[in-house]
Design goal:
The chain has one helix at residues 4-43. It is an all-alpha fold.
């Protein structure tokens, strides 16, 4: 049976891996958010074109 000291020691040994994983996860989430925001900004029609976004002028 594992004692509390043994469990704490194992968690302490895994702590650097856990924090590294959290850092990479936060970076990936930030990158994904920036990519979605950039995609939305690129799809936005230019302001002041005088027409609706779905209509083309010949």
């Amino acid at each position: 049976m594992l004692t509390l000291h043994t469990v704490a020691q194992q968690v302490w040994e895994l702590l650097p891996a856990i924090t590294t994983g959290l850092k990479f996860g936060a970076a990936a989430l930030s990158f994904a958010t920036a990519a979605v925001t950039a995609r939305r900004l690129c799809r936005r029609p230019p302001m002041g074109d005088g027409g609706s976004p779905g209509r083309r002028h010949s």
